């Protein structure tokens, strides 16, 4: 019996119009009524998903979120942080220099705001998605005690795709590197990924990995899909994600999340 289902947001729970379908809402409601923990696992900050938590009634003290690709696990009601692993000032400077060599934009996400050396359309898009405050500041001028949740290199999708394969080996040795969006390449503490976040939450709740379903579509969902007792890819998922999954559901525009919940939690055909 599955006790927890972790859902990616963009490309998974949300359709192409960034909406939650009625079918998905109803399936999530029925799963929670059966006592199953429904957890949003996202690259976004919690500020970027609060409206969805409210829409799904997952904003109570009984609910949890895996945010920032696993860097922060938080109670959705009290906002108590269960787990937080961050980067520091030296990482910020190292990645800032890397961005200059690669000729891409950069910004850094802290617990209270984003640090933006130069505003651009891609950074503006990410700030809007997360509803975060920002400060325009050269990254080398940041406070040396700064806590950095993640650093993003941002730019046109072709540019981001190409630099993924040209990053120095030492970058992959130092950081978890995930492409969370066509335009975003994220750098986190080496220990961090969505799978780590889901595992931390499962341990806190006394839920084994065999009792967990993880659903996603993008490369930043790979770790949690591989970790879960049942790893599920959307029909619209990246090829590598589909290959790593145990089951492929309908697309995000066909209420694929509802199909998973109906089949594996509610035990009914849809």
From TrEMBL:
Pfam families: Hydrolase_3
InterPro entries, sorted: Cof, HAD-like_sf, HAD-SF_hydro_IIB, HAD_sf
Keyword Mitochondrion belongs to the record: no
Tagged with keyword Hydrolase: yes
Keywords recorded for this protein, A-Z: Hydrolase
GO molecular function: magnesium ion binding; phosphatase activity
Domain of life per record: Bacteria
Stored PANTHER family: HAD SUPERFAMILY HYDROLASE-LIKE, TYPE 3, PHOSPHOSERINE PHOSPHATASE
Designated name of the protein: HAD family hydrolase
Organism: Clostridium botulinum C/D str. DC5
Upper taxonomic lineage: Bacteria, Bacillati, Bacillota, Clostridia, Eubacteriales
